[in-house]
Amino acid sequence: MARFYSRCAHQNDGMNEKHPNLSSTEIKEGTLDPVKAANLLPRTVSRSNAYLLLDGEWKFAMDPNDEGLRKGWNLQHDYIHTATWPGSVEAHMAKAKGEQHATAWRDSVVVWYERTFELPKRTAGQLHHMFQLTFGACGYDTRVWLNGYPLKTIEGEEVHYGEYTSFSYELEEEILLPINRLTVRIADTMDAEIPRGKQESHVYKRGGIWYQTYTGAVRSVWLETVERNRLRSRISVLSIVEDQLVRFTVTMRIHDPGSYVVRLTVYELDDPDNNPLATSDYPMTLDAGQKNQRLVLEVPGARLWSPQSPYCYKIIAQLLHPDGYKAEIQAHFGLRKIEARGRHIYLNNKPIYLDGILYQPGTASYEEMKKHMEGMKALGCNLVRVHIAGIDPRIYNLADELGLLLWVEVPSPHTSSKLSRKNHREELLRMLSLIGTNPSIVIWSLYNEDWGAQDVATNAETRQYIIDTYHYMKTYHPQFLVVDNDGWRHISLEGKLKSDLLTVHIYTPDLEKWKSLLEKLSKGDLEEVAAFPLLVGDPFFYRGQVPIVVSEWGGFGFPDYGGPQDLALRAERIKSFKNELRNHKISGDIYTQATNIEDERNGLIDPQTGQLAVPEGLLKSE
């Protein structure tokens, strides 16, 4: 009989194996702290249900001629290779070919995975339950079969597109067997119209700031029991600190229409007695399907979250069925307010300077990313800009605990078209649905340096899409600051900036030129401080009405950016440049960058150990 892992388990802190591009979860049975449950799977919101982790050895086959669908590999195929899930297609292909290093592919790639699993036995208390299969992330193009039958995601997709966020399948009882065969087909291309971040494409080739592809089975996959009528593993939090009201948005998945009650209960995160601080019931009649619902709860005397005091609470949300059973999810959250007002950024109504650093996790494992985050905190940073990449969602939880603000970005397409904009919006919506709980996430970028919006200065359709998306974010996700196109070519409509921050990328190793450019910038020169003008669209006259952030600078050590190779000299140069920033009316800066990645050898933190290569506190403002 297959064995389910109970949520009564603790995380193995010593992961023995590095997994490319994010990581798997290693689990041991143990005792759950009743106050603060360990989040063992790559998601920010947990549930108490039992699950079966399907990581490990899978059968593996390359499909260079893309004939598997036509020949019915989902029904039967003789696999001669194996691969470890999670892991990248590139590493799995290299192993199959007997090569030492990850295999680069050109134009397109198609691979298949397959394994069997024994169906776990459900207890008498699980009669209202069903089985759900979840992929932490996989793609870009993923199709899944169970015992030869094609599966559709909860959203109704026969093919799931995207490789940065999780997706799930509800398994119909009719196709389940005592021993089940799970088959997965993954395809990817160099198509520049899909969200790629900094992975190479037909437009941007590998080398310099562009990286080899890392795609495929990149995060854990698991089977779990879930209630037929339940809350999905997602909660969005909006706090308005002045009224002590927290606005939660939950997602309900209903198979049996009827009358239900949603119950929200807030606890201190580390209260050993688990005494509720606030609780409320919300009765409602629900139809079959999926529905989002905002629920407001007062938390009197709540403490605010900030980098200096990263105080979090625990929220337990339950869906109560008339028959008496309940479905439950759990997360931590914090109360905070971020806004841009005049020249300043305010956190919880107090001005804050952003001491930031650019972070590109690349193929780092979860354990390595944890070390990187701790290293960035030690450098004196209060903000990390996660650069157009998807990461293990538990890193967002870690940032909450460490007190690190996060600036996250949609992995960009590499060309501008109607289809690339459609793909961009779908990726944004997938990300927003899954990471709305974390107080650390304060800024979103829609685009970076025109990548995927190269015609922003000349194409009104591109500008209108960005304007519409900016307004969507401000309407439905007002808890975030939003940057339209980071670095330059921000959009002005009738003299109103469609970005909460005026950001600029300035790369020069020369201190005197740095001083001159900062002086021009702070005086409102928007034409000659970056590689391209800072504004497009209608005229815009800067008079201090929006904060300026130098969102990329430095990069010392990378040949394209210049600067000293010697680490001691590099630290001195960084300190001089940092001091000069504070002599101007600038609200924050982001140093490039945290760790080395491929050709960009300009990191300040060892990518394997997390050790600093420069003095602690170097990036903290005086």
Topology:
Layout lengths: L8 E3 L15 E3 L16 E2 L3 E3 L2 E7 L5 H4 L9 E5 L1 E2 H9 L10 E11 L10 E7 L5 E6 L2 E2 L9 E2 L5 E5 L7 E11 L26 E2 L3 E7 L2 E11 L4 E10 L3 E11 L7 E11 L2 E10 L14 E8 L5 E8 L4 E4 L2 E4 L2 E3 L1 E6 L6 H13 L4 E4 L7 H9 L2 E5 L8 H17 L6 E8 L11 H17 L4 E6 L3 E4 L2 E2 L4 E5 L4 H12 L12 E3 L10 E7 L12 H15 L6 E5 L30
Helix pairs in contact: 3-4, 7-8
Describe the protein in words.
The protein is α+β, with helices and mostly antiparallel strands and 622 residues long. Helix content is 15%, strand content 34%. The strands form nine sheets. An eight-stranded parallel beta sheet has the order 31-30-29-28-27-37-36-34, covered by helices on one side. A hairpin with a 2-residue loop joins strand 10 (141-146) and strand 11 (149-150). The N and C termini lie far apart (61 Å).
Radius of gyration: 24 Å
Q: What's the total helix number? A: 8
Proportion in helices: 10-25%
Average residue pLDDT = 92
Principal-axis shape equals globular
For the largest beta sheet, what order do the strands appear in spatially? Answer: 31-30-29-28-27-37-36-34
How far the N terminus sits from the C terminus, by CA atoms, comes to 61 Å
Give the biggest sheet.
Answer: 8 strands, parallel
In the predicted model, the low-confidence regions spanning at least 5 consecutive residues are 5-37
Which structural class should the secondary elements be placed in? alpha+beta
Number of strands: 37
Beta percentage is 25-35%
